[in-house]
Amino acid sequence: MIIQCRQCRTKFRFDDNLMHGTGVWLRCSRCGHVYFQENALMKPEKDLPSEPVKSAEESKSAKKGDDLSMESQHFVYRDANGVHSLDKAMRTKKELDEEINLDIEKRPEESISIKNEEVKPREVLSSTSSGKNWKLAVGSIFVILIISAAIFFVFPQSGEQIINNVLVYIGLSEPTRPEIAVPQMVRLQDVRHRVVNNYILGPIGVVEGTAVNRAEYPISRILIKGDILDAYSVVLGEHTSYAGNIMTDEELTNLSEEEILLKLSRQEGLNNSNDKIMPNGQIPFMVVFTHEPAGVIKSTVVTVGAERLLSE
Protein backbone atom coordinates (compact mmCIF):
# COMPACT_ATOMS: atom_id res chain seq x y z
CA MET A 1 0.00 0.00 0.00
CA ILE A 2 1.01 3.64 -0.39
CA ILE A 3 1.28 5.67 2.82
CA GLN A 4 2.01 9.35 3.33
CA CYS A 5 3.68 11.22 6.20
CA ARG A 6 1.23 13.57 7.93
CA GLN A 7 3.85 16.31 8.37
CA CYS A 8 6.20 16.42 5.36
CA ARG A 9 3.75 14.72 2.96
CA THR A 10 6.36 12.27 1.75
CA LYS A 11 4.89 9.12 0.20
CA PHE A 12 6.30 5.64 0.82
CA ARG A 13 5.50 2.11 -0.32
CA PHE A 14 4.51 0.09 2.79
CA ASP A 15 4.45 -3.70 3.03
CA ASP A 16 0.88 -4.92 3.65
CA ASN A 17 2.11 -7.80 5.81
CA LEU A 18 3.37 -5.32 8.43
CA MET A 19 -0.08 -3.86 8.93
CA HIS A 20 -1.98 -5.34 11.93
CA GLY A 21 -5.28 -4.62 13.55
CA THR A 22 -6.65 -1.17 13.15
CA GLY A 23 -3.23 0.27 12.33
CA VAL A 24 0.34 0.82 13.46
CA TRP A 25 2.43 3.69 14.79
CA LEU A 26 5.07 4.88 12.32
CA ARG A 27 7.95 7.33 12.30
CA CYS A 28 8.93 9.12 9.10
CA SER A 29 12.54 8.47 8.10
CA ARG A 30 12.79 11.89 6.47
CA CYS A 31 11.39 14.33 9.02
CA GLY A 32 11.19 12.07 12.11
CA HIS A 33 7.45 12.71 12.67
CA VAL A 34 5.60 9.96 14.60
CA TYR A 35 1.99 9.32 13.67
CA PHE A 36 -0.69 6.55 13.65
CA GLN A 37 -1.35 4.90 10.31
CA GLU A 38 -4.78 3.31 10.00
CA ASN A 39 -5.26 -0.07 8.40
CA ALA A 40 -6.94 0.73 5.11
CA LEU A 41 -7.35 -2.98 4.32
CA MET A 42 -9.57 -3.57 7.35
CA LYS A 43 -13.29 -2.81 7.06
CA PRO A 44 -14.42 -0.13 9.44
CA GLU A 45 -16.36 -1.39 12.47
CA LYS A 46 -18.66 0.61 14.61
CA ASP A 47 -17.25 -0.62 17.93
CA LEU A 48 -13.58 0.02 17.14
CA PRO A 49 -12.43 3.58 17.73
CA SER A 50 -10.38 4.99 14.99
CA GLU A 51 -7.86 7.79 14.72
CA PRO A 52 -9.44 10.93 13.45
CA VAL A 53 -8.64 11.17 9.81
CA LYS A 54 -7.66 14.43 8.29
CA SER A 55 -9.88 15.99 5.72
CA ALA A 56 -9.67 15.06 2.10
CA GLU A 57 -8.67 18.58 1.22
CA GLU A 58 -5.36 18.15 3.10
CA SER A 59 -4.64 14.86 1.34
CA LYS A 60 -5.39 16.42 -2.05
CA SER A 61 -3.03 19.33 -1.35
CA ALA A 62 0.01 17.01 -1.60
CA LYS A 63 1.99 17.48 -4.75
CA LYS A 64 1.50 14.98 -7.54
CA GLY A 65 5.26 15.01 -8.39
CA ASP A 66 6.45 13.41 -5.09
CA ASP A 67 8.56 10.35 -5.68
CA LEU A 68 7.66 7.00 -4.18
CA SER A 69 10.41 5.17 -2.39
CA MET A 70 10.90 1.53 -3.41
CA GLU A 71 11.37 0.29 0.16
CA SER A 72 9.70 1.23 3.40
CA GLN A 73 11.89 3.36 5.62
CA HIS A 74 9.47 3.56 8.60
CA PHE A 75 9.82 2.11 12.05
CA VAL A 76 6.80 0.19 13.26
CA TYR A 77 5.60 0.42 16.86
CA ARG A 78 3.11 -2.02 18.27
CA ASP A 79 1.76 0.10 21.09
CA ALA A 80 1.38 3.67 22.21
CA ASN A 81 3.65 3.23 25.25
CA GLY A 82 6.66 2.67 23.03
CA VAL A 83 5.84 5.81 21.12
CA HIS A 84 5.61 7.88 24.30
CA SER A 85 8.92 6.52 25.62
CA LEU A 86 10.58 7.25 22.28
CA ASP A 87 9.25 10.81 22.26
CA LYS A 88 10.44 11.31 25.83
CA ALA A 89 13.94 10.03 25.00
CA MET A 90 14.12 12.27 21.94
CA ARG A 91 13.05 15.31 23.95
CA THR A 92 15.62 14.51 26.65
CA LYS A 93 18.37 14.18 24.04
CA LYS A 94 17.34 17.47 22.44
CA GLU A 95 17.44 19.25 25.82
CA LEU A 96 20.90 17.82 26.55
CA ASP A 97 22.17 19.00 23.15
CA GLU A 98 20.82 22.50 23.82
CA GLU A 99 22.50 22.58 27.25
CA ILE A 100 25.82 21.48 25.73
CA ASN A 101 25.57 24.16 23.04
CA LEU A 102 24.82 26.82 25.63
CA ASP A 103 27.75 25.65 27.74
CA ILE A 104 30.09 25.81 24.73
CA GLU A 105 28.88 29.32 23.88
CA LYS A 106 29.42 30.54 27.44
CA ARG A 107 32.89 29.10 27.95
CA PRO A 108 34.72 31.21 25.28
CA GLU A 109 33.26 34.39 26.80
CA GLU A 110 34.45 33.33 30.25
CA SER A 111 37.93 32.51 28.94
CA ILE A 112 38.13 35.85 27.13
CA SER A 113 37.14 37.73 30.27
CA ILE A 114 39.77 35.82 32.28
CA LYS A 115 42.44 36.64 29.71
CA ASN A 116 41.49 40.31 29.77
CA GLU A 117 41.77 40.34 33.54
CA GLU A 118 45.23 38.75 33.30
CA VAL A 119 46.42 41.23 30.67
CA LYS A 120 45.64 44.30 32.76
CA PRO A 121 48.14 43.49 35.56
CA ARG A 122 50.81 42.73 32.96
CA GLU A 123 50.26 46.06 31.28
CA VAL A 124 50.55 47.83 34.61
CA LEU A 125 53.71 45.89 35.46
CA SER A 126 55.26 46.62 32.06
CA SER A 127 54.58 50.35 32.38
CA THR A 128 56.06 50.49 35.87
CA SER A 129 59.08 48.42 34.85
CA SER A 130 59.72 50.63 31.80
CA GLY A 131 59.61 53.72 34.02
CA LYS A 132 62.10 52.15 36.43
CA ASN A 133 64.41 51.15 33.57
CA TRP A 134 64.32 54.69 32.17
CA LYS A 135 65.20 56.20 35.53
CA LEU A 136 67.99 53.68 36.02
CA ALA A 137 69.46 54.44 32.57
CA VAL A 138 69.39 58.20 33.16
CA GLY A 139 70.98 57.79 36.57
CA SER A 140 73.78 55.56 35.24
CA ILE A 141 74.56 58.02 32.42
CA PHE A 142 74.65 60.88 34.91
CA VAL A 143 77.10 58.98 37.14
CA ILE A 144 79.33 58.13 34.17
CA LEU A 145 79.43 61.78 33.09
CA ILE A 146 80.41 62.91 36.60
CA ILE A 147 83.22 60.34 36.77
CA SER A 148 84.43 61.30 33.28
CA ALA A 149 84.46 64.99 34.21
CA ALA A 150 86.50 64.25 37.34
CA ILE A 151 89.01 62.22 35.31
CA PHE A 152 89.16 65.02 32.73
CA PHE A 153 90.23 67.57 35.35
CA VAL A 154 92.82 65.22 36.85
CA PHE A 155 94.11 63.71 33.59
CA PRO A 156 93.09 66.04 30.73
CA GLN A 157 94.38 63.87 27.87
CA SER A 158 92.83 60.56 28.94
CA GLY A 159 89.72 62.31 30.29
CA GLU A 160 88.91 63.83 26.91
CA GLN A 161 89.13 60.43 25.29
CA ILE A 162 86.86 58.91 27.94
CA ILE A 163 84.25 61.66 27.48
CA ASN A 164 84.28 61.11 23.72
CA ASN A 165 83.76 57.39 24.25
CA VAL A 166 80.84 58.05 26.61
CA LEU A 167 79.18 60.41 24.12
CA VAL A 168 79.54 57.81 21.40
CA TYR A 169 78.12 55.12 23.70
CA ILE A 170 74.96 57.08 24.55
CA GLY A 171 74.50 58.11 20.91
CA LEU A 172 75.15 61.86 21.26
CA SER A 173 78.08 61.79 18.83
CA GLU A 174 79.31 59.59 16.03
CA PRO A 175 82.54 57.63 16.38
CA THR A 176 85.47 59.23 14.60
CA ARG A 177 86.66 57.29 11.62
CA PRO A 178 90.25 56.13 11.92
CA GLU A 179 92.48 58.19 9.67
CA ILE A 180 94.86 56.47 7.31
CA ALA A 181 98.48 56.93 8.30
CA VAL A 182 100.24 59.57 6.27
CA PRO A 183 103.04 57.24 5.05
CA GLN A 184 100.40 54.93 3.56
CA MET A 185 99.19 57.82 1.40
CA VAL A 186 102.51 57.84 -0.48
CA ARG A 187 102.84 55.63 -3.54
CA LEU A 188 106.26 54.66 -4.87
CA GLN A 189 106.59 54.10 -8.60
CA ASP A 190 109.20 53.77 -11.36
CA VAL A 191 111.56 52.00 -8.95
CA ARG A 192 114.84 50.68 -10.43
CA HIS A 193 118.06 49.26 -9.05
CA ARG A 194 121.53 49.78 -10.57
CA VAL A 195 125.18 49.45 -9.59
CA VAL A 196 127.68 52.33 -9.86
CA ASN A 197 131.47 51.91 -9.55
CA ASN A 198 132.75 54.39 -6.96
CA TYR A 199 136.48 55.20 -7.15
CA ILE A 200 136.82 55.10 -3.38
CA LEU A 201 134.26 52.50 -2.25
CA GLY A 202 134.07 50.24 -5.26
CA PRO A 203 130.68 48.98 -6.51
CA ILE A 204 127.76 50.68 -4.76
CA GLY A 205 124.03 49.94 -5.14
CA VAL A 206 121.63 52.70 -6.10
CA VAL A 207 117.83 52.37 -5.82
CA GLU A 208 115.85 55.29 -7.20
CA GLY A 209 112.26 56.11 -8.12
CA THR A 210 109.40 58.57 -7.66
CA ALA A 211 107.09 59.18 -4.66
CA VAL A 212 103.49 60.36 -5.32
CA ASN A 213 101.26 62.05 -2.73
CA ARG A 214 97.85 60.32 -2.89
CA ALA A 215 96.40 62.24 0.07
CA GLU A 216 93.92 65.11 -0.22
CA TYR A 217 96.24 67.38 1.75
CA PRO A 218 99.88 68.46 1.34
CA ILE A 219 102.60 66.44 3.07
CA SER A 220 106.30 66.87 3.74
CA ARG A 221 109.48 65.06 4.84
CA ILE A 222 108.87 61.78 3.06
CA LEU A 223 111.32 59.14 4.34
CA ILE A 224 112.13 56.07 2.22
CA LYS A 225 113.71 52.81 3.40
CA GLY A 226 115.37 50.46 0.93
CA ASP A 227 116.37 46.78 1.40
CA ILE A 228 118.56 44.54 -0.74
CA LEU A 229 117.84 40.80 -0.70
CA ASP A 230 119.35 37.57 -2.00
CA ALA A 231 117.67 34.71 -3.80
CA TYR A 232 116.15 33.41 -0.55
CA SER A 233 114.67 36.85 0.36
CA VAL A 234 117.25 37.30 3.09
CA VAL A 235 117.94 40.98 3.79
CA LEU A 236 121.59 41.70 3.03
CA GLY A 237 121.46 45.41 3.83
CA GLU A 238 119.13 48.36 4.41
CA HIS A 239 119.37 52.11 4.30
CA THR A 240 117.03 55.14 4.61
CA SER A 241 117.04 58.52 2.94
CA TYR A 242 114.71 61.49 2.56
CA ALA A 243 112.94 62.09 -0.74
CA GLY A 244 114.16 64.95 -2.89
CA ASN A 245 117.87 64.16 -2.36
CA ILE A 246 119.22 63.22 -5.77
CA MET A 247 122.86 62.90 -6.81
CA THR A 248 124.40 62.82 -10.24
CA ASP A 249 126.48 59.92 -11.54
CA GLU A 250 129.59 62.05 -11.12
CA GLU A 251 128.82 62.55 -7.44
CA LEU A 252 128.10 58.86 -6.96
CA THR A 253 131.45 58.03 -8.57
CA ASN A 254 133.68 60.51 -6.73
CA LEU A 255 132.13 61.25 -3.30
CA SER A 256 133.09 59.41 -0.15
CA GLU A 257 130.69 57.46 2.02
CA GLU A 258 130.30 60.30 4.55
CA GLU A 259 129.54 62.84 1.83
CA ILE A 260 126.97 60.53 0.21
CA LEU A 261 125.15 59.86 3.49
CA LEU A 262 125.20 63.57 4.36
CA LYS A 263 123.53 64.53 1.08
CA LEU A 264 120.82 61.82 1.47
CA SER A 265 119.98 62.78 5.08
CA ARG A 266 118.67 66.31 4.40
CA GLN A 267 115.04 66.33 5.59
CA GLU A 268 113.99 69.25 3.39
CA GLY A 269 115.49 67.66 0.29
CA LEU A 270 117.38 69.33 -2.51
CA ASN A 271 116.16 72.91 -2.98
CA ASN A 272 113.54 72.32 -0.24
CA SER A 273 111.64 69.97 -2.55
CA ASN A 274 110.61 67.74 0.39
CA ASP A 275 109.10 70.57 2.44
CA LYS A 276 105.72 70.59 0.71
CA ILE A 277 104.28 68.01 -1.69
CA MET A 278 100.81 68.93 -2.88
CA PRO A 279 98.08 66.34 -3.53
CA ASN A 280 99.03 64.20 -6.54
CA GLY A 281 102.45 65.85 -6.42
CA GLN A 282 105.59 63.84 -7.25
CA ILE A 283 109.10 63.91 -5.84
CA PRO A 284 112.15 61.76 -6.76
CA PHE A 285 114.05 59.72 -4.19
CA MET A 286 117.34 57.82 -4.06
CA VAL A 287 118.68 55.18 -1.65
CA VAL A 288 122.40 54.30 -1.83
CA PHE A 289 124.05 51.15 -0.45
CA THR A 290 127.70 52.11 -0.04
CA HIS A 291 128.75 48.54 0.75
CA GLU A 292 126.67 46.27 -1.46
CA PRO A 293 127.64 42.62 -0.89
CA ALA A 294 127.71 39.92 -3.51
CA GLY A 295 124.60 37.87 -4.21
CA VAL A 296 122.11 40.71 -4.35
CA ILE A 297 119.15 39.61 -6.45
CA LYS A 298 116.46 42.19 -5.78
CA SER A 299 115.67 45.31 -3.78
CA THR A 300 112.55 46.68 -2.08
CA VAL A 301 111.54 50.17 -1.00
CA VAL A 302 108.83 51.35 1.41
CA THR A 303 107.70 54.68 2.84
CA VAL A 304 108.44 54.75 6.57
CA GLY A 305 107.76 58.41 7.31
CA ALA A 306 105.76 61.46 6.20
CA GLU A 307 104.17 64.47 7.85
CA ARG A 308 100.88 66.18 7.14
CA LEU A 309 100.88 69.94 6.68
CA LEU A 310 98.11 71.71 8.62
CA SER A 311 97.93 74.67 6.23
CA GLU A 312 98.14 74.79 2.51
Structural commentary:
The structure is a single chain. The protein is α+β, with helices and mostly antiparallel strands. The chain has three domains: 77 residues, no CATH class; 74 residues; 127 residues, Immunoglobulin-like (Sandwich). The N and C termini lie far apart (123 Å). It is elongated. A three-stranded antiparallel beta sheet has the order 4-3-5, with helices on one face. A three-stranded antiparallel beta sheet has the order 6-7-10. Strands 9-8-11 form a three-stranded antiparallel beta sheet, with no helix packed on it.
- Largest sheet composition: 3 strands, antiparallel
> What name does CATH use for the topology of the largest domain?
Immunoglobulin-like
**Strand order of the main beta sheet, please?**
4-3-5
| β-strand number | 11
Tertiary shape: elongated
Count of discrete domains: 3
CATH class of the largest domain: Mainly Beta
Overall SS class: alpha+beta
SS element count, helices: 5
Q: Unreliable runs, pLDDT <50, ≥5 residues?
A: 45-83, 108-121
Q: Any guess at the CATH architecture of the largest domain?
A: Sandwich
The overall average pLDDT, rounded, is 74
Gap between N and C termini, in Å? 123 Å
Give the helices and strands as they follow along the chain: EEEEHEHHEEEEHHEE
Beta content: 25-35%
Report Rg.
57 Å
Q: What fraction, in percent, of the residue positions are helical?
A: 25-40%
